[in-house]
Specification:
Strand order of the largest sheet: 2-1-3-4-5-6
Strand content: 5-15%
Radius of gyration: 17 Å
Oligomer: single chain
Number of strands: 6
Distance between the termini: 33 Å
Number of helices: 10
Length: 216
């Protein structure tokens, strides 16, 4: 069962998301609250996935994200927005968000997004893709290739992360155990400077690793 927390300052939004997610047989909503209660509810509810409004009047989403990211066994976090997030997207990803979703995401897509997040994958709304890619490409222009420190296996893992595969999918692709892949992914992200999976995907693209890497 995937445990989910929903944090939004609007009761109507929280109720709607709770209704949609609660209808899925493999998802349990363990907390619905605003930003002021978020950290305590996440700490107590121990969700696997947190859907977090990026802008809230009392305690904003980026503040909640940073506090939640510091918790032991922090959940995968997707930021929720109804507008062009622009400057907020990069800040959220750098702070540890696994992705960004629009609040008007179709119910079936929302449920699938939660499953992807719970399996270690990432989610990025099409509306934000251009902003994210341009931001990271601009920041990386002229920077040395940070993949040179990776082993051959780690470069394979990075390529598959860049292709959007979850840890379990990478394990199947490379015929490795799930635990081994988790260790490889952690090592890769650390060697790349403590980046998250979205940033790692951009690095993989820039390094020319997305041409298709298969099992060895």
């Amino acid at each position: 069962m995937i445990r989910v927390a929903v944090v939004d300052d609007e009761q109507l939004v929280r109720s709607g998301l709770n209704l949609i997610l609660g209808a899925a047989s493999d998802i349990e909503v363990v907390a619905c609250c605003d930003g002021a209660e978020a950290v305590d509810r996440v700490r107590n509810g121990r969700p696997d996935v947190l859907l977090l409004d990026i802008r809230m009047p009392e305690v904003d989403g980026l503040t909640v994200l940073r506090r939640v990211a510091a918790l032991p066994s922090a959940p995968a976090v997707a930021m929720l927005t109804t507008f062009d997030a622009g400057e907020y997207v990069g800040d959220a990803l750098r702070a540890g968000a696994a992705g960004l979703l629009m609040k008007n995401t179709a119910p079936e897509q929302l449920v699938q997004a939660v499953r992807v997040l719970a399996s270690g994958g990432r989610i990025l709304a099409p509306e934000a893709t251009g902003v994210v890619i341009e931001g990271y490409l601009s920041a990386a222009r002229g920077a040395p290739d940070s993949t040179v420190a990776l082993t051959d296996r780690e470069r394979q893992v990075l390529a598959l992360v860049g292709a959007g595969l979850s840890n379990r999918e990478i394990a199947r692709e490379l015929r490795l155990s799930h635990g081994t892949v988790k260790d490889h992914v952690s090592s890769v992200l650390c060697k790349l400077g403590g980046v998250n999976r979205v940033q790692a995907a951009v690095i993989a693209d820039r390094a020319g690793l997305l041409g298709g890497v298969g099992p060895v």
